[in-house]
Design a protein that fits this description.
- The chain is an alpha/beta fold.
- It folds into two domains: about 15-180 and about 325-345, Rossmann fold, CATH 3.40.50; about 185-315, Rossmann fold.
- The protein has helices at about 35-45, 55-80, 85-105, 125-135, 150-165, 185-200, 215-220, 225-240, 265-270, 290-305, 325-335, 350-370, and strands at about 15-25, 110-115, 135-145, 170-175, 205-210, 245-250, 280, 310-315.
- The strands form two sheets. Strands 2-1-3-4 form a four-stranded parallel β-sheet, sandwiched between helices. The chain has a four-stranded parallel β-sheet with strand order 6-5-7-8, sandwiched between helices.
- Helix 1 (about 35-45) crosses helix 2 (about 55-80), helix 3 (about 85-105) crosses helix 11 (about 325-335) and helix 9 packs parallel to helix 10.
- The termini are far apart.
- The protein binds ligand L6N33NVT and fe (ii) ion (2 copies).
- The site of one fe (ii) ion has 3 residues, from helix 10.
- One fe (ii) ion binds near residues 252, 292 and 296.
- Catalyzes the ferrous insertion into protoporphyrin IX.
């Protein structure tokens, strides 16, 4: 017996690979009360998510929230659930598959891209074990949150560290902290807005709505607020927008404390009164569409806006598995895996083959001339 996870079938010369662990938030297994209760219990028990002293929070969570919220949230999830299940899960799987293809093209050595969710399934420990079985001696953790936040990125890293604490032979580990100002990500966002404007008449204002966090977290030094504003400024610059043509708001407030302002819902209720009756809304902080974009932004906030006298409200989808997004994420992976011998970005097999064919052709041409 050993307290650690051992290398049961280790043998010398076993083939190795680089593992890329993509992580998003997670989603309930089904849009029903029992699944929501399980999911919310795990999520909201995380001290990185709710930073209230445990003794007080446990009473609120178990006494009130877990008795009221699961049914209400399940009803909301039902409105976005599709035959493929939760949008967040389905889109994340598409991203994983597309990134695996991109890695196979870009890298010489074997790279295995795996998807995990911070809460629910597929769990981070199980996915790390799968990467281990595949021979991943190097692991890059890429949380799919462009803006760093302790409630999302730090808790992802916590979970990875907790699992690796149990291993006898730890892999080399690298973490992507954030990519809020990555040029490829900003360009992909800008092009998705431009593509939308080609199909729909452009609104008077582009609202960039980010998931909120408690204001206290900002005061305690969380860089999230600042990174959201930087993303927004870079996106506005890329789109050549005047200051009056764009605005940052924060959505998805949870609980009674003050969160980052201005709130998206209050803004939507106020805009028609300011003479802004046509808006486009984009959520640059969400790598994949989910409950918070599809239900809260695409539907709920449209109602607030139109109820207040707004006319045209267009939601611009998240980047999802859009090819420019996948290329930007692949660039981020490439930057962060530099120096890991087997993944040295080089010519893919097809590129090498094409080069060899060209060389052969040149030699043949030369031979023919002589
Ligand atoms: C994009 C980054 C996110 C940050 C930052 C974030 C902070 C944060 N969230 C809650 C509470 C809830 N969030 C919920 C859903 C949810 N949150 C994110 C992303 C961020 N959260 C996503 C992608 C999702 C959607 C998941 C899906 O299945 O589609 C929920 C659950 C839904 C509900 O019951 O309303 C809660 C609760 C807090 C408290 C917080 C920061 C402290
Ligand atoms: Fe959230
Ligand atoms: Fe919400």
């Amino acid at each position: 017996m050993s307290r650690f996870i051992n290398e049961q079938d280790y043998f010398h010369g076993k083939s190795e690979c680089t593992g890329i662990l993509l992580v998003n938030l997670g989603t309930p297994d089904a849009p029903d009360k029992a699944s929501l209760r399980r999911y919310l219990k795990e999520f909201l028990s995380d001290p990185r998510v709710v930073e209230i002293p445990r003794i007080i929070w446990n009473v609120i969570l178990h006494g009130i929230i877990l008795n009221t919220r699961p049914a209400k949230s399940a009803a909301k999830y039902k409105t976005v659930w599709t035959e493929n299940g939760s949008p967040l899960m389905h889109i994340s799987e598409q991203q994983q598959q597309a990134l695996q293809k991109e890695m196979d093209i870009r890298f010489q050595g074997p790279v295995k891209v795996a998807l995990a969710m911070r809460y629910g399934n597929p769990a981070i420990p199980d996915t790390l074990l799968k990467l281990k079985e595949a021979g991943a001696r190097r692991v890059l953790v890429l949380p799919l949150y462009p803006q760093y936040c302790a409630a999302t990125n730090a808790t992802t890293f916590d979970k990875v560290f907790d699992e690796l604490k149990r291993w006898r032979w730890m892999p080399e580990l690298r973490l992507v902290n954030h990519y809020h100002d990555h040029p490829g990500y900003i360009k992909a966002l800008a092009n998705s807005v431009l593509a939308h404007w080609e199909k729909q008449p452009r609104g008077q204002l582009l609202v960039m709505s980010f998931h909120g966090i408690p204001k206290r977290n900002l005061m305690l030094g969380d860089p999230y607020h600042c990174e959201c504003h930087k993303t927004a400024r870079l996106l506005a610059e890329e789109l050549n927008l005047k200051p009056s043509e764009w605005r940052v708001t924060f959505q998805s407030r949870f609980g009674k404390a003050e969160w980052l302002q201005p709130y998206t819902d209050k803004t939507m209720q106020a805009l028609p009164g300011e003479g802004i009756k046509n808006v486009d809304v984009v959520c640059p902080g969400f790598a994949a569409d989910c409950l918070e974009t599809l239900e809260e932004i695409r539907e709920e906030n449209r109602e607030y806006f139109q109820h207040a006298g707004g006319e045209h409200y267009h939601y611009i989808p998240a980047l999802n598995d859009n090819s420019e997004h996948i290329k930007a994420l692949a660039d981020i992976i490439q930057q962060h895996t530099q120096g890991w011998a087997e993944t040295t970005p080089g010519w893919s097999t097809t590129t090498q083959q094409r080069r060899a064919e060209k060389t052969l052709q040149r030699a043949t041409d030369k031979g023919a001339k002589q």
